[in-house]
TrEMBL record:
Keywords: ATP-binding, Cytochrome c-type biogenesis, Membrane, Nucleotide-binding, Translocase, Transport. This is Cytochrome c biogenesis heme-transporting ATPase CcmA. It comes from Methylomonas rivi. It comes from the Bacteria. The keyword Repeat does not apply. Residues 9-210 form the ABC transporter domain. Gene3D superfamilies: P-loop containing nucleotide triphosphate hydrolases.
């Protein structure tokens, strides 16, 4: 029955060039609640660029993005998605707690409260630490806590496993799994192999989208 459910995110015929070089063209895919899409491709193939287009940070050179059947810009798309990129998106001079409160002030509350989220990402006890005193992996965990405390449907994650230890990598897989089971969607790039036994995992290889 799954195929009868319409795609909530529909990307149609997307085209992007950079410095007179086509990065990808004719790129089309759909994503339904509960699905995870892994973007693969060699270095420089355009994975980050595609994610930045999906987040609205950059315009595509052609094509359309639809959310629930409407053009993304005319829908709740930008309120419904959350992005975690290479920069961790936190303010380094503020504490862990201040950063999360700040994120919450800009968004609707999500599934977890701040304390619960910090516990989930194993940052309990770091509430009053300035972000600049955290390790790279702890900063990455904090950016994941931000996803948990705010309401969002689509997670867009650029290399989320970077800087994480084995336990942290398993944690992300669990969080993505839980998010998908709750009807969420995830688009991510990763050079790591993923092992989601239960997830409906789609893969797109950007090297073949020229
Ligand atoms: N700020 C920029 N200005 C000009 N060109 C850029 C810029 N950022 C990326 N590019 C170019 O765009 C192309 C795609 O880069 P992108 O970062 O999207 O690739 P990627 O697939 O994410 O690579 P990686 O696997 O190395 O992270 C590359 O050729 C890169 O040189």
């Amino acid at each position: 029955m799954e195929h009868l459910q319409p795609a909530m995110l529909e990307v149609a015929d997307l085209y992007c060039r950079r410095d007179d070089r086509s990065l990808f063209s004719g790129l089309s895919f759909g994503l339904r609640p509960g699905q995870v899409l892994l973007l693969e491709g060699s270095n420089g193939s355009g994975k980050t660029t595609l994610l930045r287009i999906l987040c609205g940070f950059r315009e595509a050179d052609g094509g359309e993005i639809y959310w629930s059947g409407r053009p993304a810009a005319e829908s709740s798309y930008f309120a419904d998605m959350a992005y975690v990129g290479h920069a961790d998106g936190t303010k380094k001079e503020l504490t862990v707690l201040e950063n999360l409160r700040f994120a919450l002030a800009l968004s609707q509350p999500g599934q977890y409260g701040i304390d619960q989220a910090l516990q989930k990402v194993q940052l309990s006890g770091y509430d009053d630490n300035p972000v600049q005193s955290l390790s790279a992996g702890q900063k990455r965990r904090l950016s994941l806590a931000r996803l948990l405390i705010t309401r969002n449907i689509l997670w867009i994650l650029d290399e989320p496993f970077t800087s994480l230890d084995k336990q942290g990598m398993e944690l992300i897989e669990t969080l993505m799994d839980d998010h998908a089971k709750n009807g969420g969607m995830v688009i991510l790039t990763s050079h790591h192999d993923l092992t989601f036994p239960h997830l409906s995992l789609q893969r797109i290889h950007l090297d073949s989208c020229l």
